[in-house]
Amino acid sequence: MATVTTSSPATLQSCKHASHGVVRYCPPLPWRRRSYSQVSTRATASSHGQPSATTGGRVEAPVGIAAEAGEEGDSIRRLQNGPDVRGMALEGEKGRPVDLTPLAVEVVAESFGEWLREELQRPEGEELRVSVGCDPRLSGARLSAALFAGLARAGCSVFDMGLATTPACFMSTILPRFNYDASIMMTASHLPYTRNGLKFFTKRGGLTSVDVEKICNRAAQKYVARKMGLGSRGTPPVVMRVDLMSAYSQHLRDIIKQRVAHPTHYDTPLKGFKVIVNAGNGCGGFFTWDVLEKLGADTTGSLHLEPDGMFPNHMPNPEDATAMSLTRDAVLAHGADLGVVFDTDVDRSGVVDDTGAAINGDRLIALMSAIVLDEHPGTMVVTDARASDGLTRFIASRGGHHCLYRVGYRNVIDKGVQLNNDGVETHLMMETTGHGALKENYFLDDGAYMVVKIVIEMVRMKLAELDGGVGSLIMDLEEPAESVLLRMNILGEPKHAKQRGTMAVEAFKNYIQVNLKFCYLDLSRRELFSNSCLFMRPIIFRF
Q1: What confidence tens digit (pLDDT) does each residue in 512-522 have?
Q2: C-alpha atoms less than 13 angstroms from C-alpha of 361 in its C-beta half-sphere
Q3: Cα dihedral sign for 73, 74, 78, 84?
Q4: Are 428 and 440 in contact (CB under 8 A)?
Q5: Contact present, 451 and 287 (Cβ < 8 Å)
Q6: Rounded to 5°, angle at Cα 234 from 232 and 238
Q7: Are 445 and 84 in contact (CB under 8 A)?
Q8: Cα–Cα distance for residue pair 84/87, rounded to 1 Å
Q9: Is the dihedral of CA 42, 48, 52, 58 positive or negative?
Q10: What is d(CA 91, CA 93) in angstroms, rounded to the nearest whole number?
C-alpha cells in the first residue's frame, strides 16, 4: 500500500395520534492526536469483472458462483448487523471464531465501492472519493489495509482520516475542503476489543439495512471467488492521509460560539466552567482538548482521554455503570459543572450534572426534549419503545408530542425523517441507549453534537442567572421504580441463531400471553415488548 502524507429508508408505518398531544407506540410494517494535511490525487484500481486495462487482466468469478459454496458466502452475510457490518476480528471470546477477516473486509469494501458507483450513477473512470476513519481497536491497522485495498479495487480514491469518530466520518461528506462522496468508519462501538465493524455513509446519511444487505450479498460472491483462488489481488492502493478531525472540531467550536454569543468573551464562552470528559480510551478525547479547552473550559480531572484499543478501564459506553460512576466521582471531586461520557466512536453520549446525578437513558431524552421544545415549541419527539410513560408525560407537559417507535437507532431516525416528510415537525429523535439525532444536524446521531447542545444550554442558564445546572431542567420527570434490560446469548452455530431465537421468542410469547396483557411481539427483530400493570415501562427481551 502506497501512502501519501502531505501538508431509502425502509417503509415505516404512520403513528396513530391520541389525546393530550401524545403519540403512542406504532407497530412497524414487516419487512492521540494526529495531524495531516489534505491532498487530492487519484487511486487507480479496478471495478467489475472483465479483463481490461483498468482491471489489469483480472477476471472476476461468475455471478452464480456463491451458490456452489453457500456456507462460505453465508459467513459474509452473517456479518450484517442492521445498517452496519460487525464481527469477531480477534480471538479472545470463548465460542466465537474470528469471522471479520482481512479478506472479508476487502470484499465488503469493494462491494460498497461498486454499490456507490451505481447509486450515484457515476461512469467507470470518474473519480469516487471515499474517506475512512477508525477507532483505536487493535485490529484496526490490519483491517484498514484490507479496507483500502477493497475500495481501490472498486476504483475509489481513498482518504485516510486515521483516528476519527463516526459522526465526523459523515461530516467529511459535508464539510468544505473535504466533501467526499462517501465515508466508512471502522468501529464496533461499545463492544469488546475483540470485535470490529464498518459503518457506511453517503451525503444522504447512514446506509439502510436494505442497502447493506445488497452490499453483503455482492461481497459474499466475491468472497467465495477469492477463497477459490479466482481473481488477482490488484495493485496496491494509493492512500491520502487527511486531517478531518481538526475541521470537525472547529465546526463544533463555531456552533458553540455563535449560539452562546457571549457578551464579554465571545471566543471563550466556556471560560469559568469546569467540564469533566470520560472518553473511555476511545475516540472522544478530541472533545476535551480541541473543543472545550480551546473555548476556555477547565477540563482538569478528565478521564481516559488517550486512545487504547484494549479499553483497560471500562467499556466506553454511556450505559456502563462503571463509566457513569467514575465520571460522577470526578465531577464531585473537582466541583465541575458538567461531566460527559462518550461511547467508543462518539455517536452516543451521556452526562452527569453538577450534583453528580447521571443523565442517560430516559433522563437524557428528557433533557434534550426540554432544550429542543424551548427552541421548537410543539415539536414531535421520536423515541424507541423502551421509553417510559413518565417521559411521555414529561414531553406532553412541555407542549410536545411523543411518538414511540420500534427499537433500533436507525429505525427511530428514519421515522423522524418520514414524519418531517409527511409535514409533522419533528426535531428530535432519540433512543434510550444514547443515540440521538436532530433535524438541525442532518438527522445525524452525533454524541458530541448532543453535548454541544447541552453545553450551550448550561452557559445560557448561567448568563440568565438561573439557579441550578442542566439537571434542574428534568426535576419533574417521573421515573420508573425499576427498569431492566435483558440481553441473552444464543448458543450454537451462528447459522442457526435466528431460527433458535425465533423459537425461544415464540415459546416466551405464548407464556406471556397467558400471564400478561398488552403484549406485542416484533418477530422481524426478534424482540418482545410487554406492558402490564406490573411495569411502568416496556420490558424488552432481545435474542
Answers
A1: 777 765 444 44
A2: 18
A3: positive
A4: no
A5: yes
A6: 165
A7: no
A8: 10
A9: positive
A10: 6
Q: Is residue 324 within 8 Å of 341, Cβ to Cβ? A: yes
Q: What pLDDT score was predicted for residue 232?
A: 62
pLDDT at 517: 53
Sheet holding 436-438, edge to edge: 22-23, 401-405, 380-384, 426-430, 436-438, 444-445
Cβ atoms of 295 and 172 within 8 Å: the answer is: no
pLDDT value of residue 233: 65
Question: Distance of alpha carbon 533 from its chain centroid, rounded?
Answer: 34
Check pLDDT > 70 for residue 51. no
Hey, which bits of 263-311 come out as E strands? 275-278
Side chain identity, residue 409: Y
SS3 156: strand
Cell of 531: 406492558
The residue assigned the cell 441507549 is 433
Taking alpha carbons only, the member of 374, 389, 432, 428 closest to residue 407 is 432
**Cell numbers 458538567 correspond to what residue?**
338
Predicted local distance difference test score (pLDDT) of residue 499: 82
CB 139 within 8 A of CB 109: no
Could you tell me how many residues make up the chain? 543
